[in-house]
Amino acid sequence: MGTSSRQDATDDDRWIEREAQRIEAELVRYRREVHRHAESAWTEFWTTSYIAKRLAEFEYNVLIGPDVCCDSARMGVPPDAMVEQHRRRALDQGGDADLLKVMRGGFTGAIGTRSQGRGPVIALRFDIDALELLESNEASHRPTREGFASLNDGVCHACGHDGHVAIGLGVARVLSHLPAGLPGTLRLIFQPAEEGVRGARAIVAAGHLSDVDYVIGCHLLSGWAVGEFVSGLGGYAATRKFDVRFLGEAGSRRRVAGRGKERTPRRGHGGPAPSRSAQTSRRFHASPRRADGSRNRPERDSRPSVSCCGGPRRNGCTLPVHVRTRRARCGRRRCDVRVRRQHHPDGAGRYRTE
User: Fold this and answer.
1) What predicted TM-score, i.e. pTM, was given to this entire model?
2) Where are the domains of the chain?
3) 124 - beta bridge partners?
C-alpha cells in the first residue's frame, strides 16, 4: 500500500470514529426501541419494519418478506395462527402497515445493499430475534427502571440482539455517509430466528451469499472490557434440527369406533400423542454425549435439546429437537437412530421426521 493510500485509510478511520461518537445517542435510542419491542423467532415483525425504514432512510436497497428467506428452508416456524397474531400485535404497536403486509406468514428479516463501483462483496450479519423469557420487573433492572423494558410478555432481549440491531443500523448510517465512499458492495443481513439455529439456513438457501467474498458476524459478550474486539474462526459446533410429529389422539383415552365406549390403549400399541412426546423427550435427554456411547469423558461431543410439545394440533403434537455436536455426522446419526427406536406401527404412536 502506497503512502497516499495509507493516509486515505487513516483519514477514513478518523472520520468513522468521529461520526460514531456523534451519533452515540441515536444508537442508544435504536437499541432501546428494539429492546422494548422484543419478538421471538419468525415473529420479528415490528423489529423488521423498524430496520427496513431506517435502511431506506440511509439510501440502501432494501429487501423484506419472502425475498429474504427461502420458504422451504425455514425451520421451526410457529403455527400460522400464532404468527398472524404477532403480526397484528406489531401493527398495533406502530409497525408500518405496508411493510407488515409483505411479511405475512412469518417472513421476517431484512437485507440492505449498497454498491459503489468495482470491489469485493462484503456481507455483515446481525441477528434480530429475542428469547422467550420473562423480563425482570425489579427496579434494579435498568430497562425497567428507565422505561424501556419489553412490552411483550414472555419475550425479552436477554442475549444482546437488540444491541446487534443498533450496531447494524449504526454501521449502515456511518458508511452511507463515508466521504470517500466504499468501493464494492456492502450487504447488511438482519437475520431472523437465530435462537435455536433456525434462520441462517433459509437466508443461505435464498442465494444471498452466493456472490459474497467475505462474511463478518459479531456478538456482544460480557467479560471483556468495553471497546475490546475479539476475533476467531474456530471452535464452532455443528447442529442438527428436526421436528418429530406425533399423529394420534389428543387425550389420555381413546373412543372405540361405533361403540360409544372408551378404553385405555394396550401397552406397546401407541397411546395419546402428548404422552408419547413426553416419553421421547426424556429418552433424547438420556442420549450418550459421545458417539461411542460413553458418558464419563470430560469432552462431550454433543448436547441434545428437546423443546416442549408444539401445538395445539388436532390429531397429535410436534416435538422440536435440536442437537449440537462437535461433529455433524455424529449428531445426524444419533438423531436418526433415536427416531427409529421410538417408532410404533400403531396409528396413535406413529410419527415422522422432517
Assistant:
1) 0.76
2) 9-217, 238-353
3) 188, 216
